[in-house]
């Protein structure tokens, strides 16, 4: 299990907007489920957006108008016989709030209102709907969720991610078409959030380290890399010539079982070993000696056996650890800080 408050902190680091004044007291509230938490975040986020105004874009329109504007569509006007009503079919651009992102916001708010959340939060969400009166309804089941963000719509980034989590986490029930939130966001969604949370935590809390998620080049003899998969790390921490590659793993089972023996997922171990050795080869081209190590960081489960070990493999350290998310956030912070301190010990100043 993961505490609901822990999910909030993960979201807060993953989407830095939640560090703002409008959200800080959320940690003092109690939430019965993930849906209530996401409803509260969305309610506050949309309220803050309304203070700045809903985003607008130029939207293509085609209507029958008595006063022509834009481009007159003569063939359509003849086909619809609008001329008999002293109207013309015109196509034009309108600077409107009826944008794709506003449609998603409206549809997600309506989904939450129909779901099993606190009545007070439903009421708060209903108060937002009149501001979307000019925004069309949309069916989110076919939404692809790929969006471009720029400085004009940057404030929507977190809102769209919360909408995505809500839509993917809501399940249709058989009773009267109502909706409920899964006890947990599914493994795929949580895995994505888990990775982003750890990366953004180190970026924010450990500025002495360079934290990123870079690609690693294959160490090839002839440079031929057709059909080879990309090596994209979850989290890479660097300070000076010391590198730690973290592969964040969120599974319902942290180990694999064969007969009566439990072991680390073999594919995970092969993957982190491959990352480490290819990163070491990549850095060797600089003709400077580097220390490259790897870590599989699993989200702790309720299982009796949890992976925990440090292995020396072909000159590199590969460790396996778990992060217990069912703890107060200060304990989670301590676990993450201890990883940084163990791999990047503070330099002792000699007098």
From TrEMBL:
Q: What is its EC number?
A: 3.1.21.-
Top-level division of the source organism's lineage: Bacteria
According to its UniProt record, this protein's enzyme class is: hydrolase
Q: Which InterPro entries match?
A: McrC, McrC_bac
List keywords of the entry alphabetically. Endonuclease, Hydrolase, Nuclease
GO MF assignments: endonuclease activity; hydrolase activity
Annotated protein name in UniProt: 5-methylcytosine-specific restriction endonuclease system specificity protein McrC
UniProt source species:
Tractidigestivibacter montrealensis
Gene this protein is translated from: mcrC
């Amino acid at each position: 299990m993961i505490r609901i408050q822990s999910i909030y902190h993960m979201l807060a680091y993953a989407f830095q907007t939640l560090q703002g004044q409008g959200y800080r007291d959320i940690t003092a509230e109690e939430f019965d489920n993930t849906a209530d938490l996401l409803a509260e975040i969305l309610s506050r986020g949309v309220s803050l957006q309304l203070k700045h105004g809903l985003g607008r874009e130029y939207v293509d329109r085609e209507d029958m108008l008595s006063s022509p504007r834009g481009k007159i569509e003569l063939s359509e006007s003849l086909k619809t016989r609008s001329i008999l009503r002293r109207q013309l079919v015109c196509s034009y651009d309108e600077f409107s709030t009826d944008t794709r992102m506003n449609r998603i916001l409206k549809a997600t708010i309506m989904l939450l209102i129909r779901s099993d959340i606190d009545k007070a939060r439903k009421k708060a969400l209903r108060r937002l709907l009149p501001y979307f009166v000019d925004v069309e309804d949309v069916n989110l089941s076919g939404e692809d969720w790929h969006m471009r963000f720029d400085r004009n719509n940057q404030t929507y980034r977190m809102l769209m991610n919360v909408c995505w989590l809500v839509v993917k986490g809501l399940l249709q029930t058989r009773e009267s078409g109502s909706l409920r939130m899964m006890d947990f966001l599914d493994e795929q969604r949580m895995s994505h959030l888990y990775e982003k949370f750890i990366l953004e935590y180190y970026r924010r809390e450990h500025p002495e380290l360079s934290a990123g998620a870079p690609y690693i080049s294959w160490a090839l003899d002839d440079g031929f890399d057709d059909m080879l998969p990309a090596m994209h790390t979850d989290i890479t921490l660097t300070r000076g010539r010391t590198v730690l590659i973290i592969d964040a793993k969120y599974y319902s089972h942290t180990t694999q079982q064969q007969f009566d023996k439990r072991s680390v997922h073999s594919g995970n171990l092969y993957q982190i070993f491959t990352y480490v050795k290819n990163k070491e080869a990549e850095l060797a081209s600089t003709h400077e000696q580097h220390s490259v190590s790897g870590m599989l960081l699993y989200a702790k489960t309720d299982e009796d056996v949890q992976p925990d070990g440090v292995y020396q493999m072909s000159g590199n350290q590969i460790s396996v650890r778990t992060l217990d998310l069912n703890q107060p956030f200060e304990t989670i912070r301590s676990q993450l800080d201890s990883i940084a301190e163990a791999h990047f010990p503070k330099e002792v100043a000699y007098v």
